């Protein structure tokens, strides 16, 4: 399994999760976990996804998610999971 | 399973606290480069570097994007050129031809620096090594991206004082050759004692003779992250302080380890070491001086600075060692003046002096780094400073280095501008008393008695 973490931070608005999930389903990326909170009035979401069967290159996905974020007015980052697990798990 | 706070912590470190992988450096051995003439050798060197490093920059960029961690520099280090060129180079100009080939390779590969225009003369100089050293002023003035270094001493061999005296003159000549650019050439020239073979940080990087054919070394840095973590430990005891630095250093090193393994796998090149050094930049919030002040100093240079730096250096190593099995290079904290906002401020205010910096180098990662001094400083005085610093390294079995910039045409109170990561520096006063008789004695300072530790 190839896991990636998608984080979305920005001003809350209707349909953020829907837009992100639509993109993921269109590209065969499976959502494993979602957690979402509002911190200091800001929308904060973290998704763990599996991109093993993705129909796009991972690097392209990173760019396209970023563009999607710009359209919605939030910051979307898509990073490979290892950067977090390496740092926080021995 | 990861939680949202951990993910945010990592991303905050990267975005706000300037955590970065400072450099991926590909070390390439040039010992097998052939040629019966200088031109043939240059061709062979160019070919080997460009073959091995052709995917270095693109691979670095891909890793950067996929993991979301900035990789600031992609660099190359090569076998000390004094060894590579020894057979065919008959005069200093021949070595200059080689540096042009190296510069061309660095430009074509898109790396910002290539290190290894070096000579290792800790005991004595061969004719080729002397020629290389003599060619340095011209070589650095005529090229952009190549860095030079000379190792003039070691704990096992003592200090080659002939080389030290020569280097005093070479630093001065390099400054003169690049006088129109605030003597920028000297920013690309380091004089070492106990130089490590696997240091990925410029300007002192070279691919040592103990290394394999090709290797990937990674340098990680994050003074901002350490500073931020320490803010949470204000007023706490030294135990809490040390624990905080250690934990932070661990996290930073793990990122380096990940990037190093990934780069090594993608390039099909063995992984060498992680160099965990807190390397500052002139940007606000990316300063080692700031960490020292956070530990409790009014300004860096105040009494207590050396102790604070010793503590910082040691904890950084302790944290890093658990995070990667191959921590090497220099690992610790760099204290370059021109590249560190708070050091620049302290030097401008006269709080941080050359003598205090020298004391700090006994416990820091490297040595007197990126210090601008008056352009009329005599070559023998520069040699004296080099000798002092080399002696600290020799006796204490640590790496020390000198990167002094006598800024031609400028004096104390003025500022030298180097641009980019190299920053700017106030010109610091140098002790006016001479040491000519000392440095012109000739010969070498014998190795200290602990050289018999076997």
From TrEMBL, chain A:
Residues 5-79 form the ACT domain. PROSITE patterns: ACT. Pfam families: ACT_6. InterPro entries: ACT-like_dom_sf, ACT_dom, UPF0237/GcvR_regulator, UPF0237_ACT. Gene3D superfamilies: 3.30.70.260. Belongs to the UPF0237 family. HAMAP family: UPF0237 (MF_01054). This is UPF0237 protein Shel_05450.
UniProtKB/TrEMBL annotation, chain B:
CDD domains: RNR_PFL_like_DUF711. InterPro entries: UPF0210 (IPR007841). Gene3D superfamilies: 3.20.70.20. It comes from the Bacteria. Pfam families: DUF711 (PF05167). Homodimer. PANTHER family: UPF0210 PROTEIN MJ1665, UPF0210 PROTEIN SPR0218. Belongs to the UPF0210 family. This is UPF0210 protein Shel_05460. It comes from Slackia heliotrinireducens (strain ATCC 29202 / DSM 20476 / NCTC 11029 / RHS 1) (Peptococcus heliotrinreducens).
């Amino acid at each position: 399994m190839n896991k990636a973490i998608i984080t979305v931070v920005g001003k809350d608005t209707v349909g953020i999760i829907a837009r992100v999930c639509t993109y993921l389903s269109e590209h065969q990326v499976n959502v494993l976990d979602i957690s979402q909170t509002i911190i200091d009035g800001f929308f904060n979401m973290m998704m763990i996804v599996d991109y093993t069967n993705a129909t796009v290159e991972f690097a392209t996905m990173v760019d396209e998610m970023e563009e999607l974020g710009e359209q919605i007015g939030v910051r979307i980052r898509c990073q490979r999971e290892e950067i977090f697990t390496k740092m926080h798990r021995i | 399973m990861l939680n949202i706070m951990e993910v945010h912590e990592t991303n905050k470190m990267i975005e706000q606290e300037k955590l970065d992988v400072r450099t991926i450096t590909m070390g390439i051995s040039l010992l097998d480069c052939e040629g019966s003439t200088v031109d043939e050798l240059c061709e062979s060197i160019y070919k080997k570097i460009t073959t091995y490093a052709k995917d270095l920059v693109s691979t670095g960029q891909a890793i950067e994007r996929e993991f979301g961690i900035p990789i600031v520099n992609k660099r190359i280090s090569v076998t000390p050129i004094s060894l590579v060129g020894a057979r065919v180079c008959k005069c200093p100009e021949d070595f200059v031809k080689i540096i042009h080939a190296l510069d061309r390779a660095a430009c074509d590969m898109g790396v910002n620096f290539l290190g290894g225009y070096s000579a290792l003369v800790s005991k004595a100089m061969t004719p080729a090594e002397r020629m290389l050293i003599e060619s340095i002023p011209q070589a650095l003035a005529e090229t952009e991206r190549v860095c030079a270094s000379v190792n003039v001493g070691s704990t096992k061999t003592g200090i080659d004082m002939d080389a030290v005296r020569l280097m005093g003159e070479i630093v001065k000549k390099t400054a003169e050759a690049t006088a129109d650019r605030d003597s920028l050439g000297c920013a690309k020239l380091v004089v070492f004692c106990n130089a490590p073979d696997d240091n990925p940080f410029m300007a002192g990087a070279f691919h040592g003779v103990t290394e394999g054919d090709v290797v990937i070394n990674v340098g990680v840095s994050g003074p901002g992250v350490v500073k931020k973590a320490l803010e949470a430990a204000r007023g706490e005891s030294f135990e809490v302080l040390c624990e905080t630095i250690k934990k932070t250093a661990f996290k930073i090193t793990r990122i380096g380890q990940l990037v190093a393994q990934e780069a090594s796998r993608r390039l099909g090149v063995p992984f060498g070491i992680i160099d965990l050094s807190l390397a500052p930049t002139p940007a606000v919030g990316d300063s080692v001086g700031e960490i020292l002040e956070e530990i409790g100093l009014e300004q860096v240079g105040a009494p207590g600075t050396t102790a604070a730096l010793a503590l910082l250096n040691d904890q950084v190593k302790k944290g890093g060692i658990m995070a990667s099995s191959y921590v090497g290079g220099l690992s610790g904290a760099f204290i370059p003046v021109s590249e560190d906002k708070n050091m620049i401020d302290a030097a401008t205010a006269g709080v941080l002096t050359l003598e205090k910096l020298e004391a700090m180098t006994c416990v820091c990662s490297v040595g007197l780094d990126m210090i601008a001094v008056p352009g009329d400083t005599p070559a023998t005085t520069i040699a004296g400073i080099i000798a002092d610093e080399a002696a600290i390294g020799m006796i204490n079995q640590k790496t020390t280095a000198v990167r002094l910039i006598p800024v031609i045409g400028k004096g104390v109170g003025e500022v030298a501008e180097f641009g980019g990561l190299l920053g700017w520096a106030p010109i610091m006063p140098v002790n006016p008393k001479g040491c000519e008789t000392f440095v012109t004695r000739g010969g070498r300072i014998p190795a200290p008695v602990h050289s018999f530790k076997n």
